[in-house]
UniProtKB/TrEMBL annotation:
Lineage: Eukaryota, Sar, Alveolata, Ciliophora, Postciliodesmatophora
Protein name: EF-hand domain-containing protein
Region of interest (Disordered), ranges: 1-20
SMART domains (alphabetical): EFh
Matching Gene3D superfamilies: EF-hand
Length: 170
């Protein structure tokens, strides 16, 4: 077979295809990931450097955004040049499958900075602030109480699993 020549140049060799990963994120979550990626892509090259991500995260302060730190942990293992698909795959892997208990546990772990095994009002309030949510602590407490099996503003893993798999609506 002959190689296709365009204006005196060889056609580019096809790049190795990345393995297909099933993305379990919603369209809104993918959009949010793209916005986050674009914040890290300072030169608009379509790629980000893990060192730049770490520098940006350090400027946020670990105490201010522990959920984001845990979500992006290990991103440096993707290599020196991370494209959006790789970034999205990393976030998808960190969040896990929301239909499996293991995946839901990964998400709960992002909330659970105190290591209680539950989602406390303090943890939910912290994550809400990190994400820019404007609900008051009282509103968050009421939401937790409505779905908690403990009768207080705290969710067990089982409570959280039911919510994540839409088996309870409060």
């Amino acid at each position: 077979m002959s190689k296709k020549v365009v204006k005196g140049k060889e056609a580019p060799k096809s790049q190795a295809k990345k393995p297909e990963v099933e993305i379990k994120l919603t369209e809104d979550e993918i959009k949010d990931c793209k916005e986050a990626f674009d914040l890290f892509d300072l030169d608009s090259s379509g790629t980000i450097d893990p060192k730049e991500v770490q520098a940006a995260l350090n400027s946020l302060g670990r105490d201010q955004s522990p959920t984001i730190f845990r979500l992006l942990a290990g991103i440096e293992e993707l290599g020196a040049e991370i494209d959006f698909d790789s970034f999205l795959g990393h976030i998808n892997d960190r969040l896990g499958n929301r239909e499996s208990k293991e995946g839901v546990q990964r998400i709960l772990d992002l909330f659970d900075a105190e290591g209680t095994g539950n989602i406390t009002l303090k943890a939910l309030t912290r994550v809400a602030r990190e994400l820019g949510e404007s609900m008051t602590e009282e509103e968050l407490a009421h939401a937790l109480e409505r779905i908690s099996s403990l009768g207080k503003p705290e969710l067990t893993f089982e409570d959280f699993y039911k919510v994540m798999t839409k088996k309870v609506y409060g």
